[in-house]
Design brief:
α11 links the parallel β12 and β13. The strands form 2 sheets. The chain has an 8-stranded mixed sheet with strand order 3-4-2-1-5-6-7-8, with helices on both faces. It has a 6-stranded parallel sheet with strand order 11-10-9-12-13-14, with helices on both faces. By secondary structure, it is of the alpha/beta class. The N terminus is likely disordered.
Length: 384
Amino acid sequence: MGRAMGRKGAGRMRIAMLGHKRIPSREGGIEIVVEELAARMVKAGHQVTCYNRGGHHVSGAQYDVKPGKEYKGIRLKTVPTIESKGLAAVTSSFFSALCCAFGTYDVVHFHAEGPCAMMWLPKLFGKRCIATIHGLDWAREKWKNGFGSRYIRMGEKMAVRCADEIIVLSKSVQKYFLDTYGRKTRFIPNGVTRPEYVAAEWIEKEFGLKKDAYILYLGRIVPEKGEHYLVEAFRKVRTEKKLVIAGGASDTEEYMEQLKELASGDERIIFTGFVQGRVLQELYSNAYVYVLPSDLEGMPLSLLEAMSYGNCCLVSDIPECVEVVEEQAEVFRKGDIMELKERLQELCEAEGKVRGYKEAAADYICNKYDWNRVVAGTLRLYGR
């Protein structure tokens, strides 16, 4: 057991988390997970410190939030960061791991594969280290070649070698670690909180969007999410509904421009840019169908969120999506633009079918993925 657990049984633990960009900040799924875990662990009586990167929000400095030294009882520390593509993650992970090595922590929790490359530092000082693999990041488009891919694979191997426990978010990734390294992992998926529905007010004034009058994609704008499939397919759909692409670019401004060029001439397609807060709630609350056309996922939090708002969802048939939705959503073959178009056309014409999915979605997803169970399972791993 960890030192604090050994002294006090199921007592207070001192926990450090690193690998995210910044909290409070909705820059990606990892930031949401870290905030949810840390806030709930603080409520359970534990001391949690989260190591934030320096620098600006990935979607632009206009979205920067000054985090202060504490948030929801979570201690926040900002580490030196070289704000350059490829170096921000490396430098922030190094300084975070160095702080954890010398800090008085019972558990150091690394999030994502890349940051795990620095796990040897706190391990050298006898810290109990946990890794959550949010996805096979080396397979993402922007990291497929060069230093980034090698560094992330090094992090993966370091987690296999050094982590006391490895958490995975999908059965397919669990199988990958067993087949590739012979390493057993713990399957603890993400959770979701049942939200409150909000009416279309700001989005109607800004974009002319009314309830059930648009199809929604909401997430990071990156090639592996497959937004280009969605735009191409939607252009062929006969409907007066609009397509909303909501999200900011993450070092992928060129891809964003390609999407806009692909959409040019079709006034039904709207790009909102990065969204958060009330705008995000309105978009989820009033969509007709939510689409996630990804080629690659870890565990798609945006899909959990969309279903928690009672949305009918249409997803690609990759294991990470199918595991989440089971029989509670529509599925199409990954990368198959014509099948995606046909599914979209069918749903636009089948309001009764869409209503059926909507009625079941929120109860299904909120019962299946409960944050309290996620936190309880994670704390058990900390104290083993």
